[in-house]
Amino acid sequence: MLRELSSQQLDDICWKHLSTLPYFRGMLRAVEHSLYARFELPTPILDIGAGDGNFAEALGTGPASVGIDPWFAPMHEAANLGIYWLLVQAQGSALPVRKDGFPCAISNSVLEHIPDVQPVLDEISRTLTKDGVFLFAVPNQRFKSDLWGSLVLRKLGLREAAMGYSKFFNRIARHHNLDTPEHWMERLARAGFQKVEYWNYFPVKAMRMLERGHLAGLPNLLWKKLFGKWVLFPDIRNPFLRVKRMRKLLTDPFCDEGTCTFFVARKN
Question: Which DSSP state fits 239?
């Protein structure tokens, strides 16, 4: 059952991400954080795609989690932060953990990047207890069809260019699985998840802000390289952080036409 979050909790979630990440990434992570926070996460937690640990640190799940990631560099950042109870470098399709070892697994904006994702879902199912729950968030098919750049090109009558832009953007974003919720449901069923709920979130307007933000966020990349921080001036009055506009996305995050999908899948 989804639990209500107070206005103060939502304010805190929004600020945690917008004050530490470029706004286009921060607004998406803040919305996703607000989704996980609406559920009880039994511990210990298996975190698939731990990355640099930023999301687990904000969510507060790190101390109760085993973080899994195949890439050393981001894991090294997470290790320096001291967030996770344990970090393991491994492929999601070959998790070095015992069967039925975890009551909960999470994976945030990770599965869309894995070309052959079914073996990963099978492995996650193997590691969960009988009534274990798997929560994950992924972009859906609208990241192919509803991009702002593609819309502009289609209005100019450049349909081939619009398709090319969509392919280019998603190749740069390393998106392999931009699928409908129904397609994910089929995968989850094959992996042994018998009870699955899902909600779409992140409206098209927000996705297009994120899309355009990749260019606007180039200064953040420079600051990260030079100073080790994405945001140099984390002040709520900073107009470039767009706090008030982003905060509105958290109050009622679910929308039928959302460009991302949040799943809660349970084993039988």
Answer: G
Residue 225: count other Cβ atoms within 10 Å of its Cβ.
Answer: 8
Q: Which superfamily is assigned to 7-141+176-267 in CATH?
A: Vaccinia Virus protein VP39 (3.40.50.150)
Q: What angle (nearest 5°) sits at the alpha carbon of residue 133, between those of residues 132 and 135?
A: 155
State if pTM tops 0.85.
yes
Task: From first to last of the 268 residues of the chain, give the pLDDT tens digit.
Answer: 688 999 999 999 999 998 888 888 899 999 999 999 999 999 999 999 999 999 999 999 999 999 999 999 888 989 998 999 999 999 999 999 999 999 999 999 999 999 999 999 999 999 999 999 999 999 999 999 999 999 999 999 999 999 999 999 999 999 999 999 999 999 999 999 999 999 999 999 999 999 988 776 666 666 667 767 767 677 666 666 678 888 999 998 999 999 999 999 999 7
128-165 in b/e form (b: 16+ CB < 10 A) is beeebbbbbbbbbbbbbebbbbbeebeeeeeeeebeeb
* CA gap 35, 247 in Å, rounded: 14
User: CA 59 to CA 28: how far, in whole Å?
Assistant: 14
Domain boundaries, the chain: 7-141+176-267, 142-175
